[in-house]
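Possible regression after last week's pipeline update?

I re-ran a chain I had predicted before the update to compare outputs. Posting the input and the new output here so someone can diff against the archived version. Not blocking, just want to make sure nothing changed silently.
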Amino acid sequence: MSLKVLFYFPLFVLGVVAGFFYFTHLFKSVSSFGTDKGKVLRSMMLRLPIPVVAVLLGSLAGIGGIISVLVGFTVFQIYFLVKVGSQLKKEVEEEAERLSQEENTENK
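New output (post-update):
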């Protein structure tokens, strides 16, 4: 059993690394292109090979390798989305507080 764990752990790490490259590039492209759908979709096509290549490498180890890569990718996805979500929540709260203070000063 321990040999299987040692065999699949690098594939899990490969999934985490693929998730890192995929989602950091995604966030950068959304930040720089905003809501321009064409540019974001073009950027998505450039990112698509990252998880595909990782899964193909995992497939060399069979279905367990594919699952290991996908679990690693999903773990990083959850981590990244929670991290970015908490940053965005903080920014929204700060902006709401700033607008509230501006509104209070205008009313006085």
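Follow-up from reviewer: compared with the archived run. DSSP finds four helices and no strands in the chain. Marking as no regression found.
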